[in-house]
Amino acid sequence: MMNTEIFNSNSPLMAVTSPGSSCSMDSEVTTILSDVHSDMTSDVHSVNSDDTVTENEENCRSRALKRENSDDSIEQTPKKRRYTKSRARPKSPTVVLKLKRTRRVKANDRERNRMHNLNSALDQLRTVLPQNTEDAKLTKIETLRFAHNYIWTLSEMLKMIEMQDKMQQQPLNLAQMGIAAMAAARAGTALPNLSDMQAMLNACQQQQQSLQHMQSQQSPPQQHQQHMIPSVPSSDASSMYYMPQSSPSMLSSSPDSCCYSPPSFPQQHHQQQASSPAVYADSWQCFTPTSPHNNGYFP
DNA sequence: TAGGCCATCTGGTCCT
DNA sequence: AGGACCAGATGGCCTA
């Protein structure tokens, strides 16, 4: 995207080369900066691909080192320093510029490294988040939101399990709950408040009771059972996004619940969400920074 | 082609 | 003084 403010006076380049400084300095600084800039812009492409980051980092480093060395060769001082006091002879503008440039190049190197570390940490985070391998890589903001929501949903699950224990009811199907949590966090919906969970629990309980009743009468209805309890958590998209049918808040379409229930969330669309980044992105719409709903983070 | 995402550069600020 | 961190600017790539 071409930025129309390329010649904006706020631009560092323009700030340095703005009128007011001497002409000779202007040309020198401009040359140096354009050198650095062309060096750096040639680096931009090389780091874009994850596969080549190491090699490109190496290239960046060697180039930076080369630059620094060339600077050093210029600034080389005699081994026996004439002046040991702090009040050394004032450096010429050229030397000062070179010194500044060296510092800048070093700082750029550090900054690049820092951002690489940050990206590595994000990658690590992505690896511990449930993700279908067919899905596009989560963006940075999606990764953070997903992680936040996933952790929150899992902790809500824990509360729910504890509550279940206290009530001494039938144990929850953890696989089912895990899948539900994953789907909810992933889709930007919430598995949410305790009353909803209680309703879901009650529905689960009723369903299981009816199942038991039916089982006692005749052969077990496999299909019915599948309704409530997916057999195993698998990487298959359809089961990844399985949600119990008796989750009232999830399927609610009331205005109040819009942040919890994107319109495309119900079961028939889950597979589509998993396979289509576009549809998947839609599910985050109500969590965009402009959204009134907690900036995309729940609760 | 516009807009989103990203990597990088840069100058400022704070901390050690 | 030098490093870490931050936010703004810039330009490239990709996709709808």
From TrEMBL:
Biased composition (Basic and acidic residues): 58-70
Example of a GO MF term: DNA-binding transcription factor activity, RNA polymerase II-specific
Listed GO CC annotations: nucleus
Pfam families, per the entry: HLH (PF00010)
Top-rank lineage group of the source organism: Eukaryota
Region (Disordered): 40-93, 205-274
GO BP annotation list: axon development; positive regulation of transcription by RNA polymerase II; sensory organ development
Domain spans labelled BHLH: 102-154
Keyword Transferase recorded: no
Entry keywords, A to Z: Developmental protein, Differentiation, DNA-binding, Neurogenesis, Nucleus, Transcription, Transcription regulation
PROSITE patterns associated with the record: BHLH
Keyword Signal tagged: no
Bias (Low complexity) ranges: 205-228, 238-274
Compositionally biased region (Basic residues): 79-90
Name of the protein in its database record: Neurogenin
Originating organism: Platynereis dumerilii
